[in-house]
Amino acid sequence: MFKLKKLITVAIAALICLSVLCVPEAESRKRKGLRVGSAQWTYFWNLYWLANWRRWSQIPGFAPAPQLQVTGSVVVPTPAPPAPPAPPAPFVPPSPASATILTFNNTSGTDVYLCVSTQSGLQPCVAGSIMQDGCPSNVSQLGVVDLATNQSGSFVQWPSTSPQNGWYLWKNGHTLQVFNNMTNPYTGLNNGCLQGLVFGVNIWGANCGCNFQTPGVPVPPGDFLCNGFPDTDPTSPTYNNDTPSTYTLVPNGSTAFEPSLNLPGLQCNLAFGNNPHESYDITCVNGSNAIFSVTMTPPAAGPYFTYNVGNGSQSATTTFTTQNSWVLVNPPTVKASCDDNCIDPSAAIPGSSRAGVFPYGATVCTSNPDPNPPCTNTADPYVLNKQFCAATAGSGCNFDRQPNAGQVFGGTLAVTYTGPATPPASCP
Amino acid sequence: MRSDQHHASRRCVGPVNAKWLLLVLVGLALLCQLPCGAEFEPELSHSYLQTQFAWAMYIDSCEVNHYLNYPGSSLHPLTKVRIRYRYFPHDGRPVNWPAKTYDEFWYHDGKPVGLRRNAEINLNKNDIGVIVIGQAADHFNSISSTSDALVRLLVNLQLQRAVVGAVIVPPDQYDPLLANLERYGFSSTMKQVSGPQMKIHLRCDSGSRETYLCLH
């Protein structure tokens, strides 16, 4: 009795399944004008068809829909892959081909911010202005191209009240070229002038920083150069907000690279200053937070930069590299502070200064004591250590050049940021 | 913190050899008072670190003779490399953050066989810190173990975009560590290449020696 019930149950279930499976097929056959049998019959018909469909599919009129017909190999043409987009043409700065090129290479191993300050902002032909014609006086007149990605951009002005200060994200391993992005109003042309720029890393250059700061005591508010860095995430609601979001620890002041390139020697279209002129230096006058290595490559036929160390004034007729070092002006205890920028350890003549490098506190380069030391702090317990040396250079700590008649500028200044300047725990 | 330190000592030294090893360490510490001698301790309380950096890490190593020490053990002897870290807030927050253990590596024959991460670190981007190489186990494998842990730590920090201002090395470990880092592809020869790079500023304690190593 139990077996009979079970058998009936299975049979009913099978019938339900067959109906579900076969009714749609029966409907389909009906639409096609084919014979329609009972559901069960249709089911077995389907099984039979499935078993013989390869053979039956060759019968005209019994073939499946054309799109399913298999009559041999179907060659589906493979669409050609889209052609890769042509690489963008290399960005060409608007500066003249004869201009000296200024590049910045970051080999520090980390992304950093390249900070720049321009001159006072006074335009040419304004009383007291030293700005020459066609030279950028705010950061919006400077351009930047990342030579690794060929993307051009501009410095981000910060803070909002200071158009002379800007920052740019300087990716690890990337080389940037900074160029003049304005035209000389008197000629309508870009003269490539980069007058009196001050570059720093992660803080604006030549800044006394937060020297002598007691750990745990915040620096006084108001000094935006010392007090922090804005939010640099462009997706953040506080992007570039004037309220610094990142504290910048600068215990020994900051390094600056100071180029003044492609100067036309004209103001108000009249001869000005010492005519066409160029100079550059690395300054640790206000301390050191970064190691810059500057490699100058002159044009083969000049004009050549001159510098003054060791044997007096010399002309750099081939590639020449100079580099700064660390300063320890925030010693942990009452110990002597020191400056590693006084002597070039690789100089041919022992005891020579680092070419083109201003030691700490030496605004006049060769004067010690300096008549006007830049980083004064009456609360400084090491007030006597405001300067450690003067350069042995005879006439200054710069590289300078002027083109002769018929010459133009040219060549390259390649600045490499090799990493932070970290002094040792004690002076050697 | 102190409890953690004691536990670490027990694991490293073992109860029996503690006294002798302590004497040896004291002797070594006395011998190491050279111009280039290390003055830093695992607690990272040196004022130089606090004034110059936003964070500091300390790497030391020791032999773990009582671990996996049985006949036929293929992992004995073990060298334990410990990484401690400490923040130095300069934004007004209290500075009395204690040093804590970050990672503990176990090495056999210079090869890593284990890692325990005790904490997560969250360093601010562009915060400049320092790594201090501390006491090494009295075993030639300890330098290669320390080198390996250092490289792993540097990669970790680079991913966090933290800046390592310097790696401060005791004088007796300077040359062996330099040689080991060269095995990882670090070179003191600077090349003009584009693309991401990694750099180590190796410095002897007093600054009497320093080497910039690049990984291109």
Care to describe what's here?
The complex is a heterodimer of chains A (428) and B (216). In chain A, the strands form six sheets. A seven-stranded mixed sheet of chain A has the order 4-3-7-1-21-13-16, with no helix packed on it. Chain A has a four-stranded antiparallel sheet with strand order 5-6-2-8, with no helix packed on it. Chain A is of the alpha+beta class and 428 residues long. Mean pLDDT of chain A is 80; it is low at 20-24, 32-51 and 59-71. Chain A is globular, with a radius of gyration of 38 Å. Chain A has three helices and 21 strands. Chain A has helices at residues 2-31, 39-56, 224-227; strands at residues 101-106, 112-117, 142-146, 151-153, 156-157, 165-170, 175-180, 198-201, 256-263, 266-267, 270-271, 277-283, 290-297, 305-308, 313-316, 320-323, 327-328, 338-339, 357-358, 399-401, 412-420. Chain B is an alpha/beta fold. Chain B has helices spanning 2-13, 18-31, 47-52, 140-159, 171-183; strands at 55-64, 78-87, 100-108, 111-117, 128-133, 163-169, 198-204, 210-215. Chain B has five helices and eight strands; from the N terminus they run H-H-H-E-E-E-E-E-H-E-H-E-E. Chain B has one domain. At the A-B interface, strand 21 of A face helix 3, strand 6 and strand 7 of B.
